[in-house]
């Protein structure tokens, strides 16, 4: 990863993280658990008259029942493909927030609240076909809120199109290995071993990691009057960093490719982000590669896919064989794209189609 944009992103993440963690403390996960002693909860702005905050319980109270309007700042832009998210309204004399970032309107005033803690995601079990045998797999991971806020701040800057255009050569900057990615890759490795896999079989493990992204991250629907990214981000185009995709559990091709490349990198692979006209995919370097049989491709419902690979020189001078990995369809083995390699090496609006090492 190179360039002034990356340096700016790294600096922003570091500054944001330092600011966010300065108060310390823990808070409940987003499963609705009770707050801790409140030492980590941050109230930004003045509380309206009649509203008080109890640090011991983490609760906000009014003298009588009143109307609270709470806007979850981490919520997707839309509730569904036709309804824009506008927050939630309730009547009570008490409001107790869970982990998250909120803008609250009550008693004629508005203030912000940040409740740090771990955001836990329990992934619904999915079926993985390993050599013709189907295994049930599941995994859980956690995202520290402060890490997420720092990442989204940097990502918002990256996606400011007034500063730059989307180009393939920028894609590697989306590949980030942090604590959550490392934790998730370790959990996936354990599941792979549990079902009889061996991480020493680098192609087999690469297939398994790809399947996690393919089978558990939802592809967003097209929004009426907008794009796929409009649903979550309210923008026609938005390139996510992995924590954003893992938080919402939804993402299009550039988002899922960045997530998969990050998992690959955490697992010790050399990776590349890939792109051709209108599409982004992941790339992974393998020393030994065995092509799938036509029967296997047919069973996985991609009998018409073709092999897509290129030898690419990376920054340290090595020459590596990168294999394309499709991330937006059900279990798609490493190496195969619709159209094979016929779309590679062409000039497109976003740059030359091919692999861009991260």
Q: Outline of this structure?
A:
The protein is of the alpha+beta class and 358 residues long. The chain has 8 helices and 19 strands.
Question: Could you please describe the fold and organization of this structure?
Answer:
The strands form six sheets. Strands 1, 2, 3, 6, 7 and 8 form a six-stranded antiparallel sheet that branches. Strand 14 (309-313) and strand 15 form a beta hairpin. With 358 residues, the chain is α+β, with helices and mostly antiparallel strands. 26% of the residues lie in helices and 31% in strands. Helix 1 packs antiparallel against helix 2, helix 3 (179-194) crosses helix 4 and helix 4 (202-216) packs antiparallel against helix 7. The protein has two domains: 25-114, no CATH class; 120-357, no CATH class. The chain contains eight helices and 19 strands. It is elongated. It has helices spanning 4-21, 145-158, 179-194, 202-216, 230-233, 242-248, 253-266, 294-299; strands spanning 42-44, 51-54, 59-72, 78-80, 83-84, 88-95, 100-106, 109-115, 118-130, 133-144, 271-276, 279-285, 306-307, 309-313, 319-325, 336-337, 347-348, 351-352, 354-357. The model is unreliable at 1-38 (pLDDT under 50).
Task: Set out the fold topology.
Elements: H1 4-21, E1 42-44, E2 51-54, E3 59-72, E4 78-80, E5 83-84, E6 88-95, E7 100-106, E8 109-115, E9 118-130, E10 133-144, H2 145-158, H3 179-194, H4 202-216, H5 230-233, H6 242-248, H7 253-266, E11 271-276, E12 279-285, H8 294-299, E13 306-307, E14 309-313, E15 319-325, E16 336-337, E17 347-348, E18 351-352, E19 354-357
Antiparallel strand pairs: 1-8, 2-3, 3-6, 3-7, 4-5, 7-8, 9-10, 11-12, 11-19, 12-15, 13-16, 14-15, 17-18
């Amino acid at each position: 990863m190179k360039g002034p944009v990356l340096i700016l992103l790294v600096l922003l993440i570091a500054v944001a993280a330092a600011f966010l963690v300065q108060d310390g403390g823990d808070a409940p996960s987003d499963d609705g658990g009770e707050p801790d002693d409140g030492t980590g909860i941050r109230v930004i702005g003045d509380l309206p008259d009649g509203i008080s905050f109890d640090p011991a319980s983490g609760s906000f109270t009014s003298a009588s029942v009143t109307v609270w309007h709470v806007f979850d700042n981490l919520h997707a832009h839309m509730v569904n493909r036709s309804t824009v998210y506008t927050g939630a309204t309730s009547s009570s004399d008490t409001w107790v927030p869970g982990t998250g970032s909120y803008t609250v309107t009550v008693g004629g005033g508005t203030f912000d609240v940040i409740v740090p803690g771990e955001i836990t995601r329990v992934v619904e079990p999915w079926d993985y076909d390993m050599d013709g045998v189907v295994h049930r797999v599941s995994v859980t991971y956690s995202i520290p809120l402060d890490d997420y806020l720092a990442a989204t701040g940097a990502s918002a800057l990256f996606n400011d199109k007034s500063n730059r255009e989307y180009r393939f050569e920028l894609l590697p900057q989306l590949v980030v290995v942090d604590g959550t990615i490392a934790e998730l890759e370790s959990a996936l490795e354990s599941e792979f071993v549990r079902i009889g896999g061996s991480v020493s079989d680098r192609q087999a493990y690469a297939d398994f990691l790809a399947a996690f992204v393919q089978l558990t991250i939802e592809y967003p629907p097209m929004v009426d009057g907008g794009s796929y990214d409009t649903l979550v981000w309210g923008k026609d185009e938005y390139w996510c960093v992995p924590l954003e995709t893992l938080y919402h559990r939804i993402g299009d091709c550039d988002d899922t490719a960045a997530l998969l490349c990050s998992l690959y990198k955490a697992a010790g692979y050399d990776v590349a982000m890939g792109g051709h006209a209108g599409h982004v995919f992941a790339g992974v370097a393998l020393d030994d590669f065995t092509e799938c049989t036509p029967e296997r491709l047919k069973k996985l419902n991609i009998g018409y896919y073709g092999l897509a690979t290129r030898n690419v020189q990376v920054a340290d001078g090595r020459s590596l064989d990168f294999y394309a990995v499709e991330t937006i369809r059900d279990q798609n083995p490493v190496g195969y794209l619709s159209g094979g390699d016929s779309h590679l090496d062409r000039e497109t609006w976003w740059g030359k189609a091919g692999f861009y090492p991260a």
